[in-house]
């Protein structure tokens, strides 16, 4: 997973987003102005919510204003909307920071769900890019009462996920039918991680079903490369090598890079591709 700590705004800074909201021309702006000091106070408590991940946040005091507050995100005023769109379509992100999938994660997720805590609807540190699958699986779920912990690790506050390594293993039981490959994925957690950190990582990945998702992705890409090789229009091994070289600085949990390395380290796959090379 890509490290996005640089997107974290220090302190309770919101880059003036709330100011833009209360100076907008939305017809509900007077109501928002009355809530402004209370929202700003809640911003000061956000860091503690994330830090004390083993404690479920107390119920929001803004339930009666939920529709009002969420609307400033869902139907952002003209002066605020460009900033939200810029965060959502950050082209520098080429991996989902929640799972590691190689993509441009253009869904802007509310880490602390806006449905239960609408006061954080337009707080930038609560908005995190993620892929469609992670967004669907995460939904409004946030806290696990069984593990007594937040289900997910906040990528703007912790780089634990970016330190993980993935390793694919591809078993070819019958070289005459390369499509019947058995692909599995091993997660490597750094040895210097403490038990609490290991438990947090495991809960995060389990909650998002990341291992199965990444394995399905690998199967799909592997079969796609096989089909391309069978067309005999490109040397697949050269293509894989070029991709790996171009992504030498990519974290060792980028699914495509990890898969290509595994394919290049498999002599049966390399031989097959070379025999089909134009």
Could you please describe the fold and organization of this structure?
This protein has about 280 residues and is mainly alpha-helical. The chain contains ten helices and six strands. The strands form three sheets. Strands 1-2 form a two-stranded antiparallel ribbon. Strand 3 and strand 4 form a beta hairpin. The longest helix is centred in the first third of the chain and has 23 residues. The mean pLDDT is about 90.
Summarize model confidence as the mean pLDDT.
92
User: Reading side by side through the largest sheet, how are the strands ordered?
Assistant: 1-2
Rg for CA atoms: 22 Å
E-strand count: 6
Q: Tell me the major beta sheet.
A: 2 strands, antiparallel
Helicity, as a percent range? 40-55%
Q: What structural class is derived from the secondary structure elements?
A: mainly alpha
Please, how many helices?
Answer: 10
Question: How do the SSEs run, as a string of H and E?
Answer: HHHHEEHEEEEHHHHH
Q: Tell me the quaternary state.
A: single chain
Termini Cα gap: 35 Å
Structure characteristics:
elongated; 278 residues; mainly alpha
What is the element layout, followed by pairings?
Blueprint: H1 17-22, H2 29-51, H3 66-74, H4 81-88, E1 107-110, E2 127-130, H5 132-138, E3 143-144, E4 149-150, E5 165-171, E6 182-188, H6 195-208, H7 210-230, H8 236-246, H9 255-264, H10 267-276
